[in-house]
Amino acid sequence: MTENPQWTLIWLSLLAMLSLWFGLWLHWAGLGKRRIPAHWPLHARVLVNAEELRIWHWLAETFDDHHVMIKMPVTRFTRPNASENGRHLYELLRNTNCTFSVCARDGHIVGCVDVPKPFGLSRRSRILKENLLAQCGISYIVVNPGQLPSPAEIRNEFLGEVASRARYLKREEAAVEAARINLKQTLVQQRRMRGLKTANDEHGGSSGIPSQWHDAFLIQANSRPAELRHASGYRLN
Questions:
Q1: Residue 135 to residues 43, 55, 130, 159: CA-CA distances in angstroms?
Q2: 235 class by beta-carbon count within 10 Å (0-12 exposed, 13-18 middle, 19+ buried)
Q3: Pairwise pLDDT comparison (210 vs 87), residue with the higher score
Q4: 151 neighbors 167 (Cβ within 8 angstroms)
Q5: Between β-strands 109-114 and 139-142, what pairing exists: parallel, antiparallel or unpaired?
Q6: Domains of the chain by residue range
Q7: In the 3-class helix/strand/coil scheme, how is 35-46 assigned residue by residue?
């Protein structure tokens, strides 16, 4: 009768030691996983594929007065109306992003563009982004890489017709100003050239020969003594 409680205590002690050892092992194993590796098993890759890169350049040219951001999550430029459901909304949307986002200079997103993958864009994802962004006052379009809209169409969609026209008016004003400055510089250069030509004519005399040439001729003529000869060819002095 007295041996059973002793064996029970022994087994309980062994189980406690095993549990303690197993707990320590799990702790050290977890630390090992979180340890920063000396050599990262990673390599660099491009942000976009070939089609996306072409559309990126097209957007950058179309919206040259904006910034075109790449694959930003919608949680980066939207926020919940109330703080109590913010965590829930973040979990729903944290993996939702658009291929490109057109950003104004004040930091506000004015429109988003999606480029479908080879397998397409799911209807659920498209409807979600359309409804979400429309409620936030942000335009959203899905472009066909083989048939892009005209620059005027997408600018009108994202900025409105008035803002789009204002941009072209600014471009025309800038072109006129550049032409005016170029003409002014040309006239100044022509005046400078005419002034240099007039100064050269005044110093060179009416013959058109520079003054230093005249001096050279005089020096050469004075360096040889004059000779008087008879008509028959004999030297007189």
A1: 39, 26, 9, 16
A2: exposed
A3: 87
A4: no
A5: parallel
A6: 50-159, 166-219
A7: CCCCCCCCCCCC
Over pLDDT 90: what percentage of the chain? 36
- Domain spanning 50-159, CATH class: alpha beta
Q: Is the pLDDT of residue 1 over 70?
A: no
Q: Phi and psi dihedrals of 94, rounded to 5?
A: -65, -25
pLDDT for 52 equals 94
User: Alpha-carbon Rg of the chain, whole angstroms?
Assistant: 43
* pTM, to two decimals: 0.57
Q: What angle do CA 169, 172, 178 make, to 5 degrees?
A: 140
CA 89 to CA 168: how far, in whole Å? 40
Mapped onto helix, strand or coil, the DSSP state of residue 109 is strand
Q: Find out whether 76 and 100 touch, Cβ atoms under 8 Å.
A: no
| Mean pLDDT lowest among 12-21, 43-52, 191-200 | 191-200
Alpha carbon distance 173, 193 (integer Å) = 30
